[in-house]
Amino acid sequence: VGTEVKTAAETAAPPARTLQRGPAAAGAAAASPGPAWRRVPLLVLGFAALVAGTGAGLARLAWPMPAPVAGAAAWHGPLMICGFFGVVISLERAVAIGRRWAYAGPLLAGLGGVAALQSGAAAAPWLHLGAGAMLLAASLHVLGRQREAFHVVIALGAASWVAGTALWALGAAVHEVVGAWLAFLVLTIAGERLELSRFMPPARGARRLFNAIIAAVVVATAATLLLARPVSPVPPPEATWAASVAVRGLGAALVALAAWLLANDLARRTVRQAGLTRFVAVCLLSGYGWLAVGGAVMAVDGLAPGGAGYDAALHALLLGFVFAMVFGHAPIIFPAVLRLKLPYHGVFYAPLALLHASLALRLAGDALRAAEPASAAAFGLVRAGALASALALAAFVLVMASAAWRGRRRVHAARALETG
Amino acid sequence: MNPPIDEDIVREALRTVQDPEAGMNIVDLGLVYGISAGPDGVAVRMTMTSAACPVAEMMVDEAREVLKRSLPVGTPVEVELVWDPPWTPDRMSGLAREHFGWAPR
Questions:
Q1: Distance CA A212, CA A215 (A)
Q2: Closest CA to A252 of A198, A291, A306
Q3: How far is B25 from chain A (nearest CA, A)?
Q4: ipTM of the complex in this document
Q5: Which of A16, A127, A231, A376 has the highest CB neighbour number within 10 Å of its CB?
Q6: d(CA A56, CA A75)
Q7: Nearest Cβ partner of B54 from A12, A96, A150?
Q8: pTM of this structure
């Protein structure tokens, strides 16, 4: 790294136009009501989908919910995946590339969530499709800026969202496209983890193995979509059988990915550190455990819609794996997106522990239901686990809000010191 | 007359900016590409490991903030985010490489 030293021959010359000066700018980044606040309405749309989607999921399990939420029970999956994750992932990509057009992604995803809660629900899939197209465009923009394999993986994730949502808009059922939606989230996370694994020396053959696993995820996902209703209008028994094989293959690929991540992820090393870095690593490693469990259930059960295996696999993958990633990265990403400080506190572990415990309860109920389909105890466990998961999400939002409050006070204190 | 700003002071200040995920500072991670200190102020060129990472803008601001705090009042500071040349693990310092388990060079 070549550096250049100029000696100061005279008092500081008037600064060039690009240079900011004076202590007034110090600390401004953390609190300035600059463009960061314009991102708030987008996040509000995403969090509205999260709240409504969680309520819709609870309504399905016969928890009493207000009418608009209970009425959206059928939209639980789309609200969570397209309405919430769609907004936050598109928003973080838009912030990363810093292009105004990319913000159309989170906006469309957020509007899709709103549409799902209104009578205009028919528009929701199309709005989400538009959001997916924008996310794919933003991901390709990133790939153009930095030609790296991990950006290809991230772009494949966006493409999976587009493909699955396109079939859904054309009439496929959610359970037929859910494999593609899972691939959207899994590939997005896998690409980011591959990127960060570059800090560590690569293990022999690890990159080639990673590429093979990603190829398996993509092929299996494509197969699940090719066998979905709009593509195969008359599902003969062979097609149903083939669809089940594709889903099982996807599950097996997810198990392999979990094993790869547990062996090669940066978190293995950073978990020995302290504070936020360790918390992020614990979120990741525990999430990989659920990725393995969800993938294994998918591989064995084949995701028969409405069955105990379907409930167990999807919630292990989405709550256990994806939400653990959200819990770990929110304290890093939210400060970047909203320009808030979220100082680390040991209490961050509480919602994470509740999330994992609630999911274990739910999967115990699913296992019991698989053995005894009419078991009231099994339904009770799933129901209690679901409520506890919802409480874990609420606790997480509260913990982040209290961290933002502490961060704000810290910024004010620092500023009081600076201004004397 | 202001005393000349030492490049090492700038580098040490930047060492307090951490990549929270890696648990390591941006200097040892090799993210700081260039520092120039002169009578016109301080200019820093830095990168990030991924162009898809939304944290880039915040890290640049944090670097700017840290420099404002560590340098004499009124020193103009410019921090520029660049993507070329791309970051590679070879840019990490000996300390970072050892921390992440690389064999000594």
A1: 5
A2: A291
A3: 12
A4: 0.92
A5: A127
A6: 7
A7: A96
A8: 0.90
